[in-house]
Design a protein that fits this description.
Blueprint lengths: L1 H27 L1 E5 L14 E5 L13 E5 L9 E8 L4 E5 L2 E4 L2 E2 L13 E5 L4 E5 L9 H4 L2 E2 L3 E10 L9
Antiparallel strand pairs: 1-2, 2-11, 3-4, 3-11, 4-9, 5-6, 5-8, 6-7, 9-10
């Protein structure tokens, strides 16, 4: 009988340790998301599963083109974590016209787009410690052109890789 009690106790300890490790990793280091919308087509497909770096990106510089997970700004009407691409960096002047994004007067090359934007936006100067983010499916994405800037503190992680479907496994860069 003592042997069974000891085995149950040991299994209980292992389960608690596994749960604590899992909780800590998902809360502070890595997290996963299933993409529910087509706003990032063709780069990210509906129901793709992504792994996000929630820790190490904070010690690196976010760059134009990074795909990030963030909470939308207050007043945006969005309540879930969102996934979009950084297009505008702090201090830049951005404008969407002639079906292109213009940054400080230069057209941005965007080979990842589903379709060129069919709207005009700006010109607008991006505040320090904020980003302007757009979906790759520009004409079917609720993004910064609808609800504004993403403050740096709202960025929760940067996409590391797609892990599902398996045939699409790998980096999104």
């Amino acid at each position: 009988m003592k042997k069974y009690v000891r085995t149950i106790f040991e299994w209980g300890i292992l389960i608690v340790i596994a749960w604590v490790l899992s909780f800590g990793i998902r809360t502070y280091i890595l997290d996963t998301r299933i993409v529910p919308t087509g706003s990032m087509l063709p780069t990210i497909q509906l129901q793709d599963r992504l792994i996000f770096d929630k820790l190490f990106f904070r010690y690196d510089t976010l760059e134009r083109g990074n795909i990030i997970m963030f909470t939308a700004s207050e007043g945006s009407g969005e309540h879930d974590d969102l996934v979009k691409r950084i297009i505008g960096m702090p201090g830049e002047t951005l404008e969407v016209r002639e079906s292109k994004v213009w940054i400080d007067g230069q057209a941005l090359a965007e080979p990842y787009l589903k379709d060129a934007p069919d709207y005009e936006y700006g010109p607008i100067e991006i505040p320090e410690d904020s980003y302007l983010v757009f979906g790759d499916n520009r004409n079917n994405s609720k993004d910064s052109h609808v609800w504004g800037f993403v403050p740096k503190e709202n960025v929760e992680g940067r996409v590391l890789l797609r892990y599902w479907p398996l045939e699409q496994w790998g980096s999104l860069d």
